[in-house]
Design a protein that fits this description.
Layout (H helix, E strand, L loop, with lengths): L7 H18 L3 H17 L4 H29 L11 H37 L2 E2 L13 H12 L24 H7 L4 E7 L5 E6 L7 E6 L3 E6 L37 E6 L6 E7 L2 E9 L3 E6 L4 E7 L9 E6 L5 E6 L3 E6 L8 E4 L5 E6 L6 E6 L3 E6 H5 L7 H8 E6 L4 E6 L5 E6 L3 E6 L5 H5 L8 E4 L14 E2 L9 E4 L5 E4 L5 E5 L11 E4 L7 E4 L4 E6 L2 H13 L1
Antiparallel strand pairs: 1-10, 2-29, 3-4, 4-5, 5-6, 7-8, 8-9, 9-10, 11-12, 12-13, 13-14, 15-16, 16-17, 17-18, 19-20, 20-21, 21-22, 23-24, 24-25, 25-26, 27-28, 28-29
Length: 574
């Protein structure tokens, strides 16, 4: 019949019986018996039909399914429940449930691994940690034991025990004279003392320790490292030792007859991982506390490293307000108790260092990056900020602190902003001088602007419209992709009038008087091959400037050694 399998074996048996019956009726019983025997042999020798094979396979599958179903039924009955289901589908469902379970296990393991990875990243980013020296990693940097010794020495530094340097050329709140002539005279004798790679990657920030007897420069790079270079003895002759390297500065590369090769020192240097993996945007010492150094980074944290313990701890966690916020800048008030920081999401963060970190606050003073913040040292309620959107602004911090954190930007500008000045392109920095009576901004419009102001009268400052600079002079600020942003910073050397230092695209460290007069271009074509985009000067010791480049090298400029040694001899005799 259509739709059914034909059974050839049954058909053959039926035909044999019919033939046998017909032979018996016609009297051929013997023939019928022989036919019966032949049919049996043919049936035994005949190969199994495809139908028989399929039936056998189906029978085998049915038996297996029955066994599995029996096991399931037994399990169901043992649990006191009755379940009716198709037994034919049971094996496939068992296989599917295993696959789903395995998939669920894989997803669970992946989730646990991701959570563990994030927890470890969070711990590495925010937790307190011991500083570990990166020994030998950068031009034979010194190891942990030497770094611990240096930290102990820095922890014992006492400004009160430092030698006196005479009277100061300026004081807070009083506008100093320009002093251009004096600045020109002192800058004539500066020379390149040494140049050393102290840190693995491009330098983003530098600061010099205030120790009057030594030259200690700290640098932060794009990978979260901080380096320390003790260049006090850099360039000085040393006894020749096997395996030492000659300082290239001062060597003309030619072997003149009768020339005596003099081995000179590079100084000593260390570097360590200070932040997770992001650029160290700024380094600074807290006023009156040179026993620790503060650093901000693009990982959204601001940390402090204590020299006494060698431990690093978090001071500000930018993720508390904005995840992955980049902290670009920070500054202290004159007491060192009030800390202000700016980020790339338009935030201005405030923390009282005497209170827990959880009490810190943040206001959105802009919708875009705030590249720098500077607190006036003559009036701690006055701050200046530099903005990506082409303007510099000054703020009344007391008014800002009276506003809730969720205040709108329009409300903040209306109540707390004093003045604003538009630049032609992005404003990369705005800093007060150490007296608080001048302000200098740097912009991508290739200009440095200088303002005069009275920090004691904020009401009058607010009425100054428009707030125009007293001086604007040209300086190439087109750094490109692989050079750190150029920023004009003020010197704080007490024995010299405040002046500006900034890196130049012509590979020099440039010094300017506030009136725009070029005081010096510190450059040596034989040894300076990269732009010293980041600059610093010694805060207490005159005639010392530093330039940091994209290669991780720092150049050190100072008076000639002979003149310096002569001054040191006179000082000892007196």
């Amino acid at each position: 019949m259509a739709g059914q399998d034909f059974d050839f074996s049954a058909f053959r048996n039926k035909q044999s019986k019919q033939n046998e019956h017909l032979l018996a009726e016609t009297g051929h019983a013997e023939s019928a018996s022989a036919a019966r025997e032949l049919a049996k042999k043919a049936t035994a020798k005949a190969p199994a039909s495809s139908t028989a094979k399929s039936k056998a396979a189906a029978t085998s599958r049915k038996r297996k399914a029955d066994a599995l179903a029996a096991g399931d039924d037994a399990a169901d009955s043992s649990e006191g429940s009755v379940r009716r289901s198709s037994r034919r589908s049971q094996p496939m469902r068992a296989v599917n449930s295993q696959t789903e379970q395995e998939r669920a296990d894989i997803e669970r393991r992946n989730k646990e691994e991701e959570e563990a990875r994030r927890a470890e990243e969070n711990r590495a980013k925010h937790a307190d940690r011991k500083i570990e020296a990166n020994e030998g990693g950068t031009h034979d940097a010194l190891g942990q034991a030497a770094l611990d010794d240096e930290f102990r020495r820095l922890a014992l530094y006492d400004p009160a025990q430092q030698p006196t340097t005479g009277g100061s050329e300026w004081e807070r709140g009083k506008k100093p004279p320009l002093g251009t002539k004096k600045l020109l005279n002192f800058a004539e004798n500066l020379e390149l003392r040494s140049i050393v790679k102290v840190i693995p990657e491009r330098i983003y920030s530098m600061v010099v320790h205030p120790d009057l007897t030594r030259d200690l420069v700290f640098a932060g790079d794009k990978s979260g490292y901080i380096g320390l270079w003790d260049c006090t003895d850099a360039g000085r002759p040393v006894e020749s030792k096997a395996g030492t390297t000659k300082n290239p500065v001062g060597d003309d590369g030619e072997e003149d007859e009768g020339e005596v090769e003099v081995e000179t020192s590079y100084g000593r240097w260390w570097n360590w991982k200070a932040h997770r993996s992001n650029s160290v945007s700024l380094l600074k010492f807290r006023p009156g506390q040179p026993g620790s150094i503060y650093s901000s980074a693009y990982d959204g944290t601001l940390r402090v490293t204590h020299f006494e313990t060698g431990m690093s701890e978090e001071v500000i966690n930018g993720d508390h307000w904005e995840e992955n916020a980049l902290i670009h800048s920070f500054d202290f008030d004159p007491t060192g108790n009030q800390l202000w920081a700016s980020d790339n999401d338009g935030g201005l963060i405030w923390r009282d260092m005497r209170q827990p970190m959880a009490d810190a606050k943040r206001w959105n003073i802009d919708y875009y990056k705030v590249g720098s913040v500077s607190v006036n040292q003559a009036n701690p309620n006055l701050a200046a900020t530099a903005h990506l959107k082409r303007f510099m602004a000054m703020w009344d911090l007391s008014k800002l602190q009276s506003l809730p954190e969720d205040a709108t930007r329009d409300e903040i500008v209306e109540k707390a902003q004093l003045v604003q000045h538009e630049h032609e392109k992005a404003c990369s920095s705005a800093y007060f001088d150490p007296t608080g009576t001048r302000l200098a901004s740097t912009s991508y419009d290739d200009s440095i602007r200088v303002w005069d102001l009275d920090p004691s009268n904020l009401a009058a400052l607010r009425k100054t419209t428009p707030f125009k600079p007293v001086k604007r002079f040209a300086h190439n600020c087109q750094v490109g992709r692989y050079v750190t942003v150029l920023r004009a910073r003020w010197s704080t050397i007490p024995s010299l009038p405040p002046h500006l230092h900034i890196g130049s695209m012509e590979r020099s460290v440039d010094l300017y008087s506030p009136d725009g007069t070029s005081i010096a271009r510190l450059y040596d074509p034989d040894y300076i091959t990269a732009v010293p985009a980041v600059t610093a000067c010694h805060p207490t010791r005159p005639d010392r400037y530093y330039g940091g480049s994209a290669s991780g090298k720092i150049s050190f400029w100072a008076p000639p050694l002979a003149a310096e040694e002569e001054e040191e001899t006179k000082g000892k005799e007196e």
